[in-house]
Amino acid sequence: MESKFEEILDKIVSEGNISREEALKRITAKKEKMGGLLTDEGAAHLVAKELGLDVFENISYKKPSLEIKDISLDMRNVTITGRVTRIFPPREFVSKDGRRGKMASILLADKSGEIRVVLWGDHVESISKGRLREGQIIRIFYSYVKEALRGGPELHLGYRGRIEIEPKDVKVSDYPEPKPRLLKIGEIEPNMMSVDTVGVVQRLSPTSEFTRQDGSQGRVCNITLVDESGGIRTVFWDDKVELAESLSEGDTIKIEGGYTRVGLRDEPELHVGKLTRVIVNPDIKVNVELTKQPQEVSVKIKDLEPDMMSVNLEGRVVSVSDVREFTRKDGSSGKMIPFTIADDTAGVRVVAWGDHVDNLINLSEGDTVKIHRAYTRTGLLGEVEVHLGRFSEVELNPLEIKIPDVKLDVKPKATGFTRKNIGELKENQTVEVRATLVQLYQRKPVYEACPICSKKVEMVNDEWVCVDCGPVDEPDIRYMFSGVLDDGTGVIRGNFMGDAAQKLLNMSPEEAYDLIKKTSNQTEPLKIKAPEVEGKEIIAIGRVVYNEFSQLLELNVHDIREPNPEEESRLLLSKLNKEN
User: Fold this and answer.
1) E-state strands within 113-216
2) pLDDT (mean) for 198-207
3) Which of 28, 39, 110 is nearest to 69 (CA)?
4) What are residue 280's DSSP bridge partners?
5) What is the pLDDT of residue 328?
6) Residue range 461-476: average pLDDT?
7) What is the CATH number of the domain that holds 242?
8) Most buried among 170, 342, 450, 464, by the most CB within 10 A?
9) Same domain, 521 and 540
10) Do 303 and 249 fall within a single domain?
11) Are residues 17 and 156 part of one domain?
């Protein structure tokens, strides 16, 4: 049987009206141009494409037996068939040399599961020109697998890949029609690729205009959307802003194909973009009563709890951090300044945003502050934080308040977490577990991240590119690795990120990254640390999530500590007293 290369070469000669010698010469030139990174077959594909030939037609093809559930990381040349269940908006980026690039993504499903497919370059035209539509069965050739940000594989289709729309040799029943996925607002999480939900408009904010980095003008408007399970900030962009401006409090809206991001307060935000569909006042009843604006309440710091609104408090500044500037994914810039205040009962971290930063630029240790209409959130380490938003006010050194001098080592008030056994964990709980780390999964523990949105970046044409934000000058290095936690009642996969990962390994992500480059071994940091941490008992604090790929619960760990004998004795005694 002829090789695939010979089949393509014969097709180029017979249908391209060139000699075999000329065809081989062009193929060799293509390989040299790509620095030897192309196989003979890959170079032949490009030559055939330049001649306008469909090299797949009439070339031997074996129907793939691979299903989505069988796809694993680091697979190459993947051919898979599935039904398109969702299409996401194409995005453009400009490389450093001025060339424009395109990317988009789709969800592909078969009877075994679903996977995200990222399309690059010319493949995006299939979406832009309407050839590729939701509901179609397609087959993709020569894709490769990468690890998605939230774990599990995702497929990428580059210049060597090909899409065949509605192949004739498929069994339609193997590719079921997509099911409706109407989520309750309380079920929505950050970084979801596709969201359908229904809610009632509770609050509308004014429209803002901004200038993007490329000089184009943009518009943004946000609303608060609620149902019986909770509320979510919902952001409308550009052409969708006019629709948001037409809404009134009490309107019911259905959102189809939205996407979520992590908001400034580490909560999910629902975004409405170009391809998102919004239906106003659909024939769907949402059983929710709109809440009235909260009354202002004055409290001592020790009485603060998470998710309080319109809080008034007073305190003395015990520490001030530097002003931090950041760039949002829409290209606009922002500022924030964190500082800690204390009264005679406790201390608390305060985060000021936007215009408040300019008003507090000269804030110093020892100053007194009177804060009006702030709100509280849970910080990354479980402590209560006070945030200054658009409706907050701050008085600096007011004459009428007297705050005693406080120690500068006052620690923020902690919320505490419920201690749970692994065997009783449920999705969406924020808990602490005492368990033994029995195994570290030996995989690359760090990744290159977009400094704006924290998603993984890809190397495209010798530069880092974020799917959402475009070219990135210098990616951040972030930890993400996993291990097995066992407490005797069950086992669970623990995903270690950020400070928790650094505490566990006693090594910064940059040090781990440098070690990988120095040794040319992607697992070297975990290899040398495994003897120190495997078998170690820890208190892991995190959020329980459900991994749709593995269909198992996992614990996203954001902090760890070693068990304290006195604390553990008190907990055990308290448990025994409750049981008696």
Assistant:
1) 113-120, 137-147, 153-157, 162-165, 182-183, 195-204, 208-211
2) 83
3) 110
4) 253
5) 56
6) 75
7) 2.40.50.140
8) 342
9) yes
10) no
11) no
Q: Which residue in 177, 182, 193 sits closest to 83, CA to CA?
A: 177
pTM of the model: 0.40
Beta strand 195-204 pairing with 418-419: unpaired
Which band of pLDDT confidence, cut at 50, 70 and 90, is reported for residue 457? confident
Instruction: Give me 288's structure tokens.
Output: 């929710």
Domain extent at residue 519? 418-579
- Return the ∠ at Cα 198 (arms to 193 and 203), rounded to 5°: 100
Q: How many domains does the chain have?
A: 5
Asked if 329 and 358 touch (Cβ cutoff 8 Å), the reply is: no
Indicate whether 257 and 386 sit together in one domain: no
The residue assigned the tokens 């940091």 is 525
221 and 323 belong to one structural domain: no
Show the CA angle centred on residue 292, arms to residues 289 and 296, nearest 5°: 150
In a domain, 347, yes or no: yes
Give the amino acid at 546.
Answer: Y
Question: For residue 150, what pLDDT is reported?
Answer: 56
Half-sphere exposure (Cβ direction) of 509: Cα atoms closer than 13 Å:
19
447 near 476, Cβ under 8 Å? no
Q: Is residue 256 within 8 Å of residue 276, measured between CB atoms?
A: yes
The span from the CA of 555 to the CA of 535, in Å, is 18
Phi, psi of 70 (to 5 degrees): -85, -10
Beta bridge partners of 338: 351
Q: 450 and 315 in one domain?
A: no
Other beta carbons within 10 angstroms of residue 424's beta carbon come to: 11
Query: What are the beta bridge partners of residue 326?
Result: 334
Which of the listed residues 174, 200, 231 is the one where a domain comes to its end?
A: 174
Per-residue burial over 459-481, b = 16 or more CB atoms within 10 Å of its CB, e = otherwise: ebeebbbbbebbbbeebbbbbbb
What are 512's two structure tokens? Answer: 């781990």
How many C-beta atoms surround the C-beta of residue 503 within 10 A? 16
3-state secondary structure of 361: coil
The pLDDT of residue 2 = 43
Give yes or no: residues 350 and 481 share one domain. Answer: no
* SS3 assignment, position 106: strand
pLDDT at 494: 92
**What separation, in Å, do the N-terminal and C-terminal C-alpha atoms of the chain show?**
79
Q: What is the pLDDT of residues 269-315, one digit of tens each?
A: 899 887 688 999 988 888 887 655 556 788 898 888 776 778 899 99
Please indicate, yes or no, if residue 407 is contained in any of the structural domains: no
The 10s digit of each residue's pLDDT in 29-59 is 887 776 655 667 777 877 887 887 766 544 4
State the pLDDT confidence band at 252, using cuts at 50, 70 and 90. Answer: very high
- By CB atoms closer than 10 A (0-12, 13-18, 19+), residue 137 is buried
Q: Is the pLDDT of residue 99 over 50?
A: yes
Determine the 3-state secondary structure of 229 from DSSP.
coil
Please identify, among 254, 280, 306, the residue that sits at the C-terminal boundary of a domain. Answer: 280
